[in-house]
Structures are given as structure tokens and as C-alpha cells.
Amino acid sequence: MGRLYAGLSYEQVVRKYARSVSSACLMRLQNWADAEDCFQNTFLKLYQKSPDFQDDSHLKAWLLRVAINECKNYIRDNRRHLSLDTALEIPAPSSEDNADLSWALMKLEPEPREVVYLYYVERMKISEIASVLGKKPNTVKTILHRGRKKLKEIYGGDGR
């Protein structure tokens, strides 16, 4: 039997966390091809390093931290990074699509985008996000607050 990660086989980990890792990469890079590279590197590191995990939440936090770091390294090493908005000139969705905030989320700067994404989409606690991003919880709260405020401006919220 192969190596287990918090009680899951490698294949089970990939299936279970593929969506979370790919979404985190796409939110950061805004480019499918680049996100795929970082996605693959994240799971490759899991396979190569084979760290021990206490439980599922520890495993998920580790994967997201590695994915975010992979994206940061990718951006640093590839300065020619082009925003998806710039490349495609994505318009705001029509009123019937207002339930989907992903277009507005993509307009945020990378740091608040990551925090808002991890908080609302991945449903992580402030302390977990702080651990994943290597920041203090109060810093994460401030970034989340500013991200929400900017998101309201972008989305056209009523300020509540």
C-alpha cells in the first residue's frame, strides 16, 4: 500500500483537494495555463516531500499554502505576467448573472483576493488563513475588511 496523507491515498488527496488548489491558483494568477503549472507543482511537492499531517484540515492548509507560494514564485520568476482582465477585456456580468461574484473577485489585488477567497469560498477561519499566508490574524482581519470594502465598490453594493 502507498503512502497515506491524513488517512488518504495520494490519488484521494488529489481528487478531494483539486478544486480548492486549482481555484486558489487561478485566483492568484488569473491565467489557466499558469494556474495548471502551479497546481501540478503543488501536488508534486506533496508526493516528493510526503509530510505527515495531523488531520484533513492540516493537509488542506498545507496544500493551499504551497499553492499560494508556488503562485508567488511563478509571478516573481515570470515578470511578463498578463492579467486575464487585460487580455480578454472581461465586461461586468449582466443583472441576471449578479449572483456570481467571481468577476468582481478577480478585479481585487492579489492579497485581498486570496484572503476573501479563502474566507468565503474555502470557508477557512481567520486563524487558518493567517497560518496559510504566514500573517498575523489581525492583519488577515484588516485585509479581509479592506477586501470586502473594495468588493462592494466593484460590485456596487449598498454599503451595508
Task: Based on the model shown, name its key terms.
160 residues; mainly alpha; Rna Polymerase Sigma Factor, Chain: A; Arc Repressor Mutant, subunit A; 2 domains; two-stranded antiparallel ribbon; globular
The N- and C-terminal alpha carbons lie at a distance of 54 Å
Total of domains:
2
Taken from the alpha-carbon principal axes, the silhouette is: globular
What name does CATH use for the topology of the largest domain?
Rna Polymerase Sigma Factor, Chain: A
Give the arrangement of secondary structure elements.
Layout: E1 4-5, E2 8-9, H1 10-29, H2 32-49, H3 56-77, H4 84-88, H5 102-105, H6 110-121, H7 126-133, H8 137-155
Antiparallel strand pairs: 1-2
Helix pairs in contact: 1-2, 1-3, 1-6, 2-3, 3-7, 6-8, 7-8
Please describe what this structure looks like.
It is a single chain. The protein is mainly α. The protein folds into two domains: 1-90, Rna Polymerase Sigma Factor, Chain: A, CATH 1.10.1740; 92-160, Orthogonal Bundle (Arc Repressor Mutant, subunit A). Helices cover 68% and strands 2% of the residues. The protein contains eight helices and two strands. The chain has helices spanning 10-29, 32-49, 56-77, 84-88, 102-105, 110-121, 126-133, 137-155; strands at residues 4-5, 8-9. It has a two-stranded antiparallel ribbon with strand order 1-2. Strand 1 (4-5) and strand 2 form a beta hairpin. The longest helix is centred in the middle third of the chain and has 22 residues, at 56-77. 28% of the residues are buried. The model is unreliable at 85-99 (pLDDT under 50).
